[in-house]
Amino acid sequence: MSARRAVSRSGQALPATRPPTLDEVATRAGVGRGTVSRVINGSAQVSDQAREAVRSAIAELGYVPNRAARTLVTQRTDSIALVVFESGERFFAEPFFGRIVQSISTGLVDRGLQMVLMIAQAPHERERLEGYLTRQHVDGALLLSLHGADPLPTKLEERGVATVRAGRPAGTDLGCYVDADNRGGARDAVAYLKDRGRHRIATITGPQDMAAGIARLAGYHDVAGPGLVEHGDFSEESGAAATVRLLSQDPELDAIFAASDTMAAGALRILRERGLRTPQDVAVVGFDDSVVAAHTDPPLTSVHQPIEQMGQEMVRLLLSKIDGIEPSDPEVVLTTSLVIRGSA
């Protein structure tokens, strides 16, 4: 059976529509075919004027690059995996993830790359994930919230998949990572409480199989010594439960440094339920300076970490590796600052 052609209202056959070609884009833009190709491939070897002309021609003609053909030529998929090693519930509840994902997504879009978000915690999710992360599917991977001395970054690099992780690795093989100065930020927070006359300062830690949790506890010990320590997992409920335990151990404590804003929110809730005033009876400081900090009662004093900048730096390092350029600064640690609000 032959294909039927479209006809006009007068009954005349209309020419079959076809997608515009690369040559037509070049003609419309007034540049060579090679310039169009370089613009599409994200090359820096194009003048701003030529790049704008090509982009305008692409928009006018509705040109869509043939991704399959381009992959054969460039040996790239133009896809970057963003892998989060937490449960979906934790991912959507923690403000940190939303902010850094938005920053990463913006950086990739600016380079014409697509982001593949993968959330994996259970063993079967992890198994599927490892099978997918190959050069046939992605050009590189950004890894968030790894626990312990996870071997995955090394495995991916051995497969030729460039990787950058958020947070300093727990092992001795540091690789390429971006982190905030967790220890310094925690140290500043506890020193501030001490300078304000607080003498019985407790802490609620983050997970001790994560670099951030370990470093923030170390910063606490730098100022408070052995102190009074209870462990949490960065969630609000763990912060509340830890606060109950802390008050049981020392009913006279006068300050709490929580290693995340969500845990600090849990601490504030328990203090309020126990009839303790913040900051008059117990001062509270969190970590992250997230949206949570501005909406607690009272507003939360917190250590600000530059999350958006962390995302930008992760993208910069990864794209450098994908382009075959080993970064001169593969270990990036960003400064933190203390934001004073009503809770301390």
Describe this structure in words.
With 344 residues, the protein is of the alpha/beta class. The strands form 2 sheets. A 6-stranded parallel sheet has the order 2-1-3-4-5-11, with helices on both faces. The chain folds into 3 domains: 53 residues, lambda repressor-like DNA-binding domains (434 Repressor (Amino-terminal Domain)); 128 residues, Response regulator (Rossmann fold, 3-Layer(aba) Sandwich); 125 residues, 3-Layer(aba) Sandwich (Rossmann fold). Helix 9 runs parallel beside helix 10. The protein has 14 helices and 12 strands. This is LacI family transcriptional regulator. Keywords: DNA-binding, Transcription, Transcription regulation. GO terms for molecular function: DNA-binding transcription factor activity; transcription cis-regulatory region binding. It holds the Pfam family LacI.
